[in-house]
TrEMBL record:
Gene Ontology MF term list: phosphoribosylanthranilate isomerase activity
PANTHER family, per the entry: N-(5'-PHOSPHORIBOSYL)ANTHRANILATE ISOMERASE
Chain's gene name: trpF
Protein name: N-(5'-phosphoribosyl)anthranilate isomerase
Domain N-(5'phosphoribosyl) anthranilate isomerase (PRAI): 3-190
Keyword flag Isomerase: yes
Organism: Nonomuraea glycinis
Length: 197
């Protein structure tokens, strides 16, 4: 079970996620209570060992803006959330970063359909912490895909059983308030997700 912890903004929480065995760590570089500057993301990314994928999260920005911010942040992955056209992914391919497409259940759920190497199937309101009908996507996504949206340490096993994802992605469910991560919740989520596999 691949696990991504998203929306980190403090070194102690980056360290907690790495220590607990996260496969990927996300820095939100778009409007959000979790937004960090590319410079702050670069400081945090420098603390992450190579085995953990660092991902910059964007939503609606044009490819030139995404390119500049991703390069400044030094992230190895680029997550485009929402209705980015295929052409946005094509324009970013030459960067050699891991491209991640994040969509809700109404979208094309074939990983690779937009030349991405990782797909995230999320709630209609990303980063809201709202659970949704995870079972509705069971059997639909293809390839490497992560389930996101309203997951937390207590429900991740149920969500995995319902949807059958390749991995999971969490932000709100490891926070005590919007944008305030909690190291103990991060560790509990990793443990619960691994057991759910
Ligand atoms: O986390 C945010 O604030 C955010 C903002 C804009 C686009 C994506 C965002 N996060 C993504 O949302 C899911 C996690 O959702 P939840 O909070 O666990 O319900 C994950 O894919 C994040 O990358």
């Amino acid at each position: 079970m691949y696990v991504k912890i998203c929306g980190l903004s403090e070194p102690e929480h980056v360290a907690a996620a790495v220590e607990a065995g996260a496969d990927a760590i996300g820095f939100v570089l778009t409007a959000s209570p979790r937004q960090v500057s590319p410079e702050r993301a670069a400081e945090l990314a420098a603390l992450v060992p190579d085995r953990v994928l660092t991902v910059g999260v964007f939503r609606g920005e044009d490819p030139a803006t995404v390119r500049a911010a991703a390069l400044a942040a030094g992230v190895r992955g680029i997550q485009l959330h929402g209705k980015h056209p295929h052409g946005d992914f094509t324009e970013l391919k030459d960067l050699g970063r891991t491209l991640v497409r994040a969509v809700d259940a109404r979208a094309d759920l074939r990983c690779g359909a937009f030349d991405e190497s990782l797909l995230i199937v999320d709630a209609p309101r990303p980063g809201s912490g709202e659970p949704w009908d995870w079972a509705a996507v069971r059997g639909r996504p293809t390839g490497r895909w992560l389930l996101a949206g309203g997951l937390d340490p207590a429900n991740v096993a149920e969500a995995v059983a319902a949807a059958g994802p390749w991995g999971v992605d969490v932000s709100s469910g490891v926070e005590t308030a919007p944008g305030v991560k909690d190291s103990a919740l991060i560790a509990r989520f990793l443990t619960a997700a691994r057991r759910a596999a």
